Amino acid sequence: MTEKTAEQTDEAAAPAADLPPLPAMPPVPQDPPQSDPPPQGLPQSAPQHDLAQQGLPLVPPRRPCRVLRAVARWTAAVLVLGGLGTGTAMGIASMERTDVPGLATEDDGRWDYPRLTLPALPADAPRPFSDANTAEVHHADLRRLLLPAPAGAKVDKKADGWVTTAQYVAEYPKDDRAELTQRLKDSALRHIAARSWTMPDGTSSRVYLLQFNSVAYSTEFQDELFGDESYPQPLAGLTEAATDDEWPGTGGVEYTTPRVYSEAQPYGAEQVRHAYVLAGDTVALVVHARKGAAGTETVPFHQTVVLQNQLLG
């Protein structure tokens, strides 16, 4: 009886997936027949050790078979449930967060930009906003401070690196380009770097970095763009600019001044969003434009401005 119970326990400890049905319990041996009376002179209830001393067979005690059978069944049930729970936990742990129902992160329209890193500076060159750099000059290669195009973008090779003044002023109406070109000549403009790309949804993105000799010249140029108005000089294709009330902030960048605008409705053939960022000796212009009724998306535009601002700060 003891050996069969151990085999039953080993079967219950097997993995839950391979657990066989519980075997039928073997018949319980019954007491020896009591037809023959006990030997004379011995009471029927004599202790068994007295019977052993007299050479008489021992009567095996009745075992609690129902209790053992219940314990075995409960052990098997616990092992099955434990195996299922462990398998479920391991399955969830191996899944991506977006694959787990209830834990998926909803897509908010952000673009997939590469990991950003600041370019190396020349030897002994200070950062633009350090105490030793009173002119707030960016000593890194300006092209290395341009925001890289996101995944899936088609980059315009004609506007990827150094660009001319004519390429920059083409962002403004034709009637304003000559005056703006002369203004840039009169300022201490050093050079202009740009990057342009188009996303699969048709959104056109352009980023320009205008670097001057010092923060004094860059500030003067931006002030002339705004004049006495609340809004800057209008861009080509922009009917009327409006302050972007959804702009979340600078992205934790100190010493920079972003100004963010969206086109007021009703807009024309395309909706234009743009922003200026004053960062030391550099003025950045970020433009997003998209044709059609859908217009440009707010989230990727803000994302572009924040990331470009971080590179300049």
Strand and helix map with partners:
Elements: H1 2-12, H2 48-53, H3 65-93, E1 154-163, H4 165-169, H5 174-186, E2 189-198, E3 204-212, H6 215-226, E4 241-243, E5 256-263, E6 270-279, E7 282-291, H7 298-312
Antiparallel strand pairs: 1-2, 2-3, 3-7, 4-5, 5-6, 6-7
Summarize this structure as a short list of keywords or feature phrases.
single chain, alpha+beta, seven-stranded antiparallel β-sheet, Protein Transport Mog1p, Chain A, 19% strand, 313 residues, 2 domains, disordered N terminus
What series of H and E elements makes up the topology?
Answer: HHHEHHEEHEEEEH
* DSSP helical segment count: 7
CATH architecture descriptor text of the largest domain: 3-Layer(aba) Sandwich
Proportion of beta-strand residues = 15-25%
Describe the global form.
globular
Would you tell me which CATH topology of the largest domain applies?
Protein Transport Mog1p, Chain A
Low-pLDDT segments, ≥5 res: 1-36, 38-60, 86-105
Radius of gyration equals 41 Å
Largest sheet: 7 strands, antiparallel
CATH class of the largest domain: Alpha Beta
Structural class: alpha+beta
Cα distance spanning the termini: 82 Å
- Mean pLDDT across the residues is 77
Strand order of the largest sheet: 1-2-3-7-6-5-4
Total strands: the figure is 7
Give the total of domains: 2
Percent of residues in helices: 25-40%
